[in-house]
Design brief:
Layout lengths: L2 E3 L2 E4 L1 H10 L6 E7 L10 E7 L12 H13 L3 E5 L1
Parallel strand pairs: 2-5, 3-4, 3-5
Antiparallel strand pairs: 1-2
Length: 86
């Protein structure tokens, strides 16, 4: 899973699910899902955000930019691991 900057990763649905099972020590995890279906995770220390969007040319990702940016920024400011996946 590629590291974008300290604490921020981009990956797939499988990457995000696998990271939850690792149980990061002394850190909480934030997962941003950009897909038609949310990632079903109910674990302590894991915050999730789901943006319903299909991988199509006409998809309007800009309308979700501010809320996604806030979710990511809050996690990084709180020294959390943040994963963005599609």
């Amino acid at each position: 899973m590629p590291l974008i900057k300290e604490g921020l990763f981009v990956g797939t649905r499988v990457d995000a699910s696998n990271l939850v099972s690792v149980k990061l020590p002394d850190a909480s995890l934030r997962i941003l899902t950009v897909d038609s279906e949310p990632l079903q995770i109910e674990e302590d220390g894991v915050s999730t955000k789901h943006v319903t969007c299909l991988d199509e040319p006409e998809a309007d990702l800009l309308s979700f930019f501010d809320e996604c940016s806030d979710f990511i920024t809050t996690g990084l400011q709180n020294k959390q691991t943040v994963v963005v996946h599609w």
